[in-house]
Batch of 2 targets.
Target 1
Amino acid sequence: MSAVRRIIIDTDPGQDDAVAILLALASPELEVIGITAVAGNVPLALTQKNARMICELAGRPDVRVHAGAVRPLVRRLVTAEHVHGRTGLDGPQLPEPTMPLQEMHAVDFIVQTLLAEEPGTVTLCPLGPLTNIAAALNRAPEIAGRIKEIVLMGGGFFEGGNVTPAAEFNIYVDPHAAEIVFSSGVPIVMMPLDVTHKALTTAKRVAAFRALGTKVGIATAEMLEFFERFDEEKYGSDGGPLHDPCVIAYLVRPELFRGRHCNVAVETGSEITMGMTVIDWWGVTDRPKNATVMRDIDSDGFFALLTERLGRL
Ligand code: BDR
Ligand code: CA
């Protein structure tokens, strides 16, 4: 078996973030060295609390959770309670967390970890706006050369946007942070809406989570039933897109995904296309290739992996 991959999950839970965290904690191929919370789907006070609730649900109160940025680098915070509910984790009744929030700020944790660990051994997994990651790169630019890879959920091109016609939520909330990350020179794997819109929480797939009969399986089904109602209405689909777990699934089973190495540029100037990820899929510019952009997923394989792994918790 190849070496365990060490990851930091940067997140704004969010039901789909929660499932991503559960998948990571259930996967022996990964070691979660810390979780950093960022403002996004709901304000930071809730995302850091939700991250701890999910660690406890997974039976992992030992995981270090750090709180980070309360707002984007430049723009005002936009949240998504209309999708995720008032708490960000509406659906199941989960107990208030008792595990502590770490005192160290998330940005300090990211910088210190990357400076302390062997270069090329830590992967960053951003599942929300990229504020914490960009702030860390701004604070200590020398960490860029030490990050193994950034595997992130964000952006969209062929599918357009989900929060504006042009922009996906995570990039739209902090486009200036995204611009910093995409021009950092760090190897990036991007899971855009073009992939995640093919990973639908159909009734059958949610029933499989519930049928696990465990606390985690039932809570996952309850989270997804709440989460999917907004997108089902919007897209007229059976189920909603399960965005963030695609990042973790890629680390465990990269063969489930297909994509292409190309240039991604982020719009930060025009209000009408603010946060758009302009992907040079056809190589029509000479802009440098800065990301592997995924476009396809074996969605049955993805949900089979998720169900099997969540069943271990
Ligand atoms: C992304 O936005 C959030 O609402 C989800 O958690 C996901 O990270 C999808 O656009
Ligand atoms: Ca998220």
Note: Residues 14, 16-17, 41, 80, 83, 127-128, 153, 162, 168-170, 243-244 surround beta-D-ribofuranose (ligand 1) (CB under 6 Å).
Target 2
Amino acid sequence: MMNEPSSPSSVMARYAVFGNPIAHSRSPAIHARFAELTGQTLTYERVLAPLDGFAVAIDDFIAAGGRGANVTLPFKIEACVASTRLTARAAAAGAVNTLSFEDGEIIGDNTDGIGLVTDLLANAGVELRGRRILLLGAGGAAQGVILPLLQTAPATLVIANRSASKAVALAHRFAANGPIHACAFDALGTTAFDVVINATAASLAGEVPAVASELYDEETFAYDMMYGATPTAFMRLAAQRGARVRDGLGMLVEQAAEAFQVWRGVRPPTDVVLAELRASL
Ligand code: ATR
């Protein structure tokens, strides 16, 4: 007698994170823990996609039974192009970090922005509504979080960038979504902001965006989207000025939780996973 073909439900659901480089991605550990905590059965692997071969790598993964994927640097824009359908938040971000493969479609989503906002509101207890928020940077990382930040109804969202023209372009693009303004670093003045978010790549080089240190004071909450075993230079400077500070590890866990919910329909607990990840840095 021939073996029955295995039913779809008996096949382990397969997910992966695509990037280049990818060896240091913490996403497999985070999703494995989410699966454990929610009783879901799945696999989650790392895929090093060639710099010129992202779309092919995704097609291969789909052909091999992949159900969904996260996408990290440098492929978030390419993932947007590869998607056959975009969620509203991915279309607004112009970048995709979460893909779902369903019925021949590649659905592109973006959970980075909601990940940041959830970490600020729920984990750090920071008020955003009615506040003056400064977003430093105008690259992909900044672009992805603008709409969710505006949706928290801040008094104002100022985008400042080393190359001011990129900030101006972003402010134009999101002008209809809320009180957004663009500025050059040296035109920010010296009045402290309630919340300052560093979305530049400066921390990677151990640098701090060249803005006046008066922009942070004891009332400021300073958030760096980067994270590491020790505080970034941006966090150290803001802390010296009396600001409360936080790195981007919570954003990483929250964007993953949102992706997990998109794929599995279940919300994983994030506090325990964030604490474990912090201890492992
Ligand atoms: P990402 O997708 O991670 O945002 P990106 O598109 O290369 O990466 O953008 C990097 C951002 O960090 C930009 O806003 C960049 O400023 P410029 O547009 O002026 O290049 C910013 N950036 C990088 N290094 C910086 C530094 N040392 N000081 C301030 N801003 C920096």
Note: Confidence is low (pLDDT under 50) at residues 1-9.
